Amino acid sequence: MGTQHIISIGDFDRDGIDRLLDHAGQIDKKKFDPDALAGKILAVLFFEPSTRTRMSFESAIARLGGTSISVGSVDACSMAKGETLADTIRVVSGYADAIVIRHPKEGAARLAAEFSTVPVINAGDGAGQHPSQTLLDLYTIRQSMPIDGIDIALVGDLRYGRTAHSLASALSLYNARLHTVSPNGLELPQTLAAKLRDRGMEIIEHDDIREVIPDVDVLYVTRIQRERFPDSASYFNVSSSNRITPELLEGARKHLIVLHPLPRVDEIDPRVDNSPHAKYFEQSRNGVPMRMAMLLQVLQ
Ligand code: NCD
After folding, report:
1. Which residues pair with 69 in a beta bridge?
2. Is 53 near ligand 1, meaning CB less than 6 Å away?
3. Which of the four CATH numbers 3.30.300.30, 3.30.365.10, 3.40.120.10, 3.40.50.1370 does domain 9-129+286-299 have?
């Protein structure tokens, strides 16, 4: 078998995803060998800020007996001296058994995989994909309800939000119905929407968050991706009228869960945190068992 990379959620079929979710469930029940990856080294190459993704990958490799290495800040590595990503990857793949990469450019992880001799995991490539986040999102949904046939609202920046892109793709395998609520200009990219509709997915666009709340099982809220806007004026033109509040959730289904990949800025009122609907902190915690399952898949 060739080197197994995880670049896009589209690399998996439904069985492949379900198997990983099941495995994460076992790991969550402490059913894993804490030395399974003893002696393995994970290189963590993050060219963009991260708290959860990076720390949960580092926690995951440590819990399996392996180690992680990194350059620290991007400014401290040779790309700051003009080295190409291809050269950096060629070098780093000689130092580690797998590479987790986050990069501001869409397609960077795919390029890295071309030059790497070890498995590459995409931890976010610009506005492209974020497959490990999607797996933990699906895992979190499945803790509350079967994924098949759910009604889910994707709220926020669906244009630049890579977590929304990956999740929407994966959900097309589960016969989910997608409701979208985004500020003007931040809608789901047409090409992605067309692809999903071709796969038979129903996508319903809404102008007002109040319209969707009573009809969905999952509310997936995302941050406006400020860093991806061409200039600050266009960012300030975006209104954040879709803030989730306890009052807004009054008409929700009893089993509705609110997810957010985090970090949140002001999309969710902190008063929602204590509501039984709020699952976003559990969701971030699920990053560890999910990424342990991923590391075991590519490194064992
Ligand atoms: C997300 C990302 O980096 O795309 N964060 C994460 O990995 N949990 C979401 C975001 O930054 O808004």
Report:
1. 43
2. yes
3. 3.40.50.1370
